[in-house]
Amino acid sequence: MAKGPSLRVVQRKPTEIIQRRTVVDMHGYSDAGPSHRAPQRDNRPAHVSSPPASSSSSNSNSGVQELPGFYFDPEKNRYFRLLPGHNNCNPLTKDQLQEKEREKQRHQRLAEDEKTTKKAPRTGLNTSLLLQKRHLGLLPENSYCRLVHEVKVSGMRRHKLEIQSTDNSNPNTDNFRIIVGDSVCERVFTVNDVSHGGCKYGIMNFSSGSRGSLSVEMCDNLYFTNRKVNSICWASVNYPDSHVLLCLVGAADTPGCVSLLPASLFSNSNPDQPGMLCSFKISTAWSCAWCLNPQFDKSFSTGLSRRVIVKDAETGRTQTYGVGTDVLAQHFALRVPVLFNGCRSGEIFSIDLRQRGRRDHSWKAKRFHHESAITSVRVLQDENYLLAADMLGQIKMWDVRVTKPVLEYIGHNNEHAYLPIHVNEHEGLLLAVGQDCYTRLWSLKDGHLLRTIPSPHPAANDMIPSVVFSSNLGGSRGLPGLLMAVRHDLYYFPYNTDYQEGGELCL
Fold first, then answer.
1. What letter would DSSP give residue 278?
2. What is d(CA 325, CA 345) in angstroms, rounded to the nearest whole number?
3. pTM summary value
4. How far apart are the C-alpha atoms of 202 and 263, rounded to whole Å?
5. How far apart are CA 504 and CA 215, in angstroms?
6. Quick one: pLDDT at residue 276?
7. What is residue 30's predicted lDDT score, i.e. its pLDDT?
8. Each residue of 79-113: b (16+ CB within 10 Å) or e?
9. CA 247 to chain centre
10. Is the pLDDT of residue 384 over 70?
């Protein structure tokens, strides 16, 4: 068989390189597919740019000519085809290259995250300087506390937790999908995907020891369902956080429903007195919320396709509000019985439960809009401000009184996922996990991005971490910290820098 013509690398003008593309396509081969060695960098013209596979690669290869359909590997100093050609053993695609670059960046961030000394969230911000300013009277008490929390957040380090169970022969191998903590974060409701389809759910009990050590025990009474869990919230029927409210999506011949389950149902010690246990036939419920206002303290809401339902859990009395779109997110105010709803259309509106019987849309007390579907809404404690996130990655703080945005939190990543936001006003923090699987923390007061935490596992749309942040993780003796569930693993990020794995934890 005759050999193809050999290639000799010659310094050429950019247009001449493009004209030789067909020769590269036919005869330039390597073990990774068709390729062509790039000209030496010392003689390249300064204005030639590299392929836009990623921002970091573009910056490092600013002197490489872009060839349509080819990718330049700076390590091998070669061009590689992006599409399968004569050599199909190892075709390259832009998605694969971008994923490779993302993984490289994730490993770099993980290495930085493991360092004992981390970058301060703000320039010149450290504990000793803050303490000095406080003693000199240059820093108000509330500002001092807020800034100290920012320093503590920047110093949190990742520790893996072992989930204890009475059945130690059956370790958790099912991936976490949702975790939701109760009001004091002694219990966390979990939803795990099961390999054969459907999901299982239960409660993890947390306890905190000296120096912030944390232990976790999984309840034995796990429940399985072939339906998808869309939304969860804790409910206070008999006492605070006595129940859990779940929205289950219908599957095949099984209709969707909203279930109110007593937390004692999942107790290892006393499962004999479950309390109120009921299920409401409400199909395609996207969201749910429990009302804590004394006037409607047994009421809950569900957001459906084109409807909002408010139901009394004891009497079954139902109020229905017609909406022109899907209601994806809900949250009740506490002082007044007002329900805030976020829609797929980008609209956010409130309903005052005291105004009954209105058939037109005059019951919409407040209305404002985002540019994309709303994924989460949270009312702040003074109830004059509301936080909302959407599927464009925008997170905004709205002044409810004038229905105008007053602050935006930059950096969140979302294109189409149904992702919540988490607010901790005591520490002045806002948290959100993006579709890129990074957990970001902002200052609630001014929107400053304090920290970006990479996932311990490779990013994937079905492996987005679920997090819980609490001022007292593990109960009244606990310290502030972040709990992260990703795949089948559970991680703890404590404020306490002296935290030792294997101390009081059974690891």
1. E
2. 6
3. 0.80
4. 9
5. 8
6. 67
7. 36
8. bbbbeeeeeeeebbeeeebeeeeeeebbeeeeeeb
9. 19
10. yes
Q: What is the pLDDT of residue 71?
A: 75
Q: Say how far apart CA 189 and CA 171 lie, in whole Å.
A: 18
Place of tokens 């404020």: 495
Please tell me the distance from the alpha carbon of residue 271 to that of residue 276, in angstroms, as a whole number: 13
- In the chain, domain spans: 16-92
Give all strands of the β-sheet with 29-30 in edge-to-edge order: 29-30, 33-37, 78-81, 70-73
Report whether 403 contacts 377 (CB < 8 A): no
Q: Which is nearest to 81 in space by CA: 42, 129, 28?
A: 28
**What does the CA dihedral 26, 29, 35, 41 come to, rounded to 10 degrees?**
-120
CA–CA dist 65, 14 (Å, integer): 7
Contacts 24+ apart (CB under 8 A), 90-98: 90/31, 90/32, 90/33, 91/33, 92/32, 92/33, 94/53, 97/53, 97/54, 97/71, 98/53, 98/54
- CA nearest to 67, candidates 19, 101, 34, 4: 19
d(CA 259, CA 498): 42
Tokens representing residue 23 in the block: 């020769």
Write out the two tokens for 213: 């050590």
Q: What is the DSSP string of 391-410?
A: TTS-EEEEETTTTEEEEEET
- Phi, psi angle pair for 115, to nearest 5°: -65, 140
Distance of alpha carbon 257 from alpha carbon 240, whole angstroms: 23
Position 414, amino acid: N
3-state secondary structure of 442: strand
In the numeric block, the tokens 């809404």 are attached to 377
Lowest-confidence pick of 62-66, 211-215, 407-411: 62-66
Task: Report which residue type is found at 506.
Answer: C
Q: How many residues does the chain have?
A: 507
Take residue 136 and report the two structure tokens written for it. Answer: 């000199």
Separation CA 447–CA 408 (nearest Å): 6
φ/ψ of 478, rounded to 5, equals -75, 165
Distance CA 201, CA 245 (A): 12
